[in-house]
Amino acid sequence: MTDDDFWLRGEALLWWTRGMKLPPLASASPPGTPLIDAGVLGTPGATVLFGGNNSLLNDSRWGVRVQGGGWIDCSKQIALEADYLGLRGLSQIFQAGSDGTDIISRPFINAVTGVPDAELISFPNVLAGTVTVSAKTEFNSAGARLRWNMGCEDWGCGDGLRWHLLTGYRFAELDERLVIREQLESLLPGNGTFDLHDRFRTENEFHGAELGSVLRVRRGRWDAELLGKLALGNVRQTVAISGDTVTDNGVVTETLTGGLLAQRTNIGTYRRDRFAAIPELGVTLGYRISHGWSASLGYSLIMWRNVVRPGDQIDPTVDVRLIPPEIPAAPDATRPGFAFRDTHFWAQGINFGLSYRW
Questions:
Q1: Residue 1 lies in a domain
Q2: Residue 320 φ then ψ, to 5°
């Protein structure tokens, strides 16, 4: 079995990623519910419209992976190789609204009383409005490495087995954002409109060393590859939280700091470094369709520990004294607060490839 001098593989990816967990972000109550219980979880008939046990951003999506390399010595013992993987950005939007006919709210825990509470979106003869939740996720990875020929077994007629050791560098990036918006119109005289935003954004940037192994078997026109890799290094975690409320009473428009889940007690940009591990497993079956050209079908799994995601950074406990306008001032308020909350991320799926060796 002989190795070619150079190789290039392009793959179309149909992958799934781990969804984002959220606290309850929108709720509803049946007609006739008293104003004080409107959308308050735990009261009779109150239900979660969005968030809670369900996750979002877990649909399939397309991506691309490109890998290329070549032997750098005449004996074909050491090769230089690089790759890039990118998944198409995935977005999801939820919206619920009413002209005041339905009862819709945003649930939270009242930090003052310690019991469930809710902020109105729509209530008969009181308020009409819409709540919109939009989220987006993007994942990319790239690497460069040396491929060491650790052993071979030739079976004749081009058939045989190769075992290669991989040592190199790995980069990975997971960027996500979550925006919650309320657009409200008072049905009471003289109170105008309100436009609220809560914004949560997270960035995870990994740099580390990678060690792995590839076992390749060729038999006639068929070949198979088994891949195992582990990257160990540092992930820079960034969480950015912002919020604002725009009020318009028909005479004066005013912009205030804070929405509902984003208040002055947690608004800001926070960064820290954490040790992280990214293992990857893959299996690929290829078929040589002509001289130098092969088609392939494979499966890959990538795991990433110690990442931050927007839904985990939400503190569902809110000091109602902070809801704009903050009158009187509440200097002792501490909720919603911020604390880094780690979780894990995975991406997996099917790969359709075409490669050329020469």
A1: no
A2: -65, -15
